[in-house]
TrEMBL record:
Keyword match rRNA processing: no
Organism: Sphaerobolus stellatus (strain SS14)
SMART domains in the record: ZnF_C2H2
Entries under InterPro entries matching the protein: Zinc_finger_trans_reg, Znf_C2H2_sf, Znf_C2H2_type
UniProt protein name: C2H2-type domain-containing protein
Annotated GO MF terms: zinc ion binding
Keywords recorded for this protein, A-Z: Metal-binding, Nucleus, Transcription, Transcription regulation, Zinc, Zinc-finger
Length: 114
């Protein structure tokens, strides 16, 4: 337990070192001394650090049966599920939101018979 707490404290100290507040309303990312991107809130700066620099991305999977797409953020996944499937495969009736997705499906699963 003590090791896990120590590791968590080290991670927090590292974040504190990378994201600092210089008396202005901005939080500045100092990743490897190069990023310098500014944020109005600490949570936004920390999210930037995790997603852009530490590659700790959550993946949101589409809930539509048969769709295996994943998205980096919840809003993209929600937008995807709200779009109607306008392109329907005439061989298996599977629907797609974009023509290029239907074409990819046909090449992979319906052997290009469109």
């Amino acid at each position: 337990e003590a090791i896990a707490v120590e590791a968590a404290d080290e991670k927090k100290a590292r974040r504190e070192e990378i994201i600092h507040h210089r008396g202005s309303p901005d939080y500045i990312c100092n990743w490897e001394g190069e990023c310098k991107k500014k944020f109005k809130s600490r949570p936004n700066a920390e999210k930037h650090l995790q997603v852009v620099h530490m590659k700790q991305r959550k993946h949101y999977r589409c809930v539509t049966p048969g769709c295996h797409r994943t998205f980096r953020d919840r809003s993209s996944a929600k937008r995807h599920t709200k779009l109607p499937a306008k392109f329907i495969c005439p061989l298996c009736n599977k629907g797609y939101k974009r023509k290029d997705y239907l074409k990819e499906h046909a090449e992979r699963f319906c052997k290009g018979q469109l």
